[in-house]
């Protein structure tokens, strides 16, 4: 299966040699964007220091761009690192989400818990094979405390085997 983040598309906002920023294809709010390393890896933590520096520098630059475009009061920066954290696309990425007072009706606190009302699921729109399903691991979907989906238990920096 071809990775949707390994190829540039018309939603490109900004690019660097090791990373690029694009609009989220299924935004939770207007201005929701992503910073994506060019090297295909499943975990942000598998990136080397040069890639980390460039990715986080691009998050900073994107925040300034989005501040001007959206007049955001604040930002939520999010990473879903691994299937248990809700990662659905098998390529590391960082969500940069502009926030405004009142964007969550009835909850002015903001934060990362229940910050958005339910939105139409984008999971059904993903190509078959794009999701990380626990049922695809060698444990056949049985609950376990170990790694799954591309296991690499010999790598102390990547115990869950997210990096390829």
Describe this structure in words.
This protein has 164 residues and is of the alpha+beta class. It has a single domain, classed as HIT family, subunit A (2-Layer Sandwich), CATH 3.30.428. Helices cover 13% and strands 15% of the residues. Mean pLDDT is 76; it is low at 132-164.
Give the gist of this structure.
The chain has 164 residues and is α+β, with helices and mostly antiparallel strands.
Descriptive keywords:
164 residues, alpha+beta, HIT family, subunit A, five-stranded antiparallel β-sheet, 1 helix, 15% strand, disordered C terminus
Helix coverage percent: 10-25%
How would you write the strand order of the largest sheet? Answer: 1-2-3-5-4
Instruction: Give the biggest sheet.
Output: 5 strands, antiparallel
Structural class based on helices, strands and sheet pairing? alpha+beta
**CA radius of gyration:** 17 Å
What fold name stands as the CATH topology?
HIT family, subunit A
Mean pLDDT: 76
CATH superfamily placement: HIT-like
Order of helices and strands: EEEHEE
Count of all domains: 1
Number of helices: 1
Report the end-to-end length measured between terminal Cα atoms: 14 Å
Low-confidence stretches: 132-164
| CATH class designation | Alpha Beta
Work out the strand percent: 15-25%
* Shape call: globular
Number of strands: 5
- In CATH, the architecture is 2-Layer Sandwich
